[in-house]
Amino acid sequence: MYKKILVPLDGSKTAEEVLPHAKALAYSEGAEIIILNVVANPAVEFAFSDPGIAAETIAEEEAAGKKYMFEIESQLKSEGFKVSAILAEGSAANVILKMAEQNKVDVIAMSTHGRTGPAHWFIGSVAERVVRNSKIPVVLIRSNK
Fold first, then answer.
1. What is the C-alpha separation between 138 and 145, in angstroms, rounded?
2. Which of 13, 109, 115, 126 could covalently link to 22 via disulfide, CB atoms 3.0 to 4.6 Å apart?
3. What pLDDT was estimated at residue 90?
4. Is residue 110 classed exposed, middle or buried when 0-12, 13-18 and 19+ CB atoms within 10 A define those classes?
5. Tens of pLDDT along 90-116?
């Protein structure tokens, strides 16, 4: 049923709480895990007036993202999983949905940070936007933190 599982990770321990669930699903289905890290574009996100600052910040985020993704990918491969990694730039929810479509994944598995009240209203929920707009199943794991 599930041959490709997209697992968005943001570098936080909260996001990584989905990994045991994604691994169990991948193991039971013989599926590939595709891990995704989205680097936000500060030029868009924060409207920096200095493009040099934005470019430097993006470069730093990309370097950190590549290192992080390599570590997670290596860990999963050492456990015997078929895994690939994608590092992309943009708005997290939009990129997750785009990568799901481009890679023809069967399910998206992700953690939710569990924000409520004003924090949820102000920041919004990437998970909520993905669920509302996804054309495929989405598995959400609520953070224990």
1. 21
2. 109
3. 87
4. buried
5. 889 999 999 999 999 999 999 987 655
Tell me phi and psi for residue 14, to 5 degrees. Answer: -60, -50
Q: Using the 8-state DSSP alphabet, how is residue 41 labeled?
A: -
Instruction: Judge residue 104's burial from the number of C-beta atoms within 10 Å of its C-beta, 0-12 exposed, 13-18 middle, 19 or more buried.
Output: exposed
Distance CA 46, CA 30 (A): 41
Residue with tokens 């940070």: 113
Task: Sketch the domain layout of the chain as residue ranges.
Answer: 4-142
Whole-number Å distance between alpha carbons of 56 and 141: 33
User: Contact 136/101 with Cβ under 8 angstroms?
Assistant: no
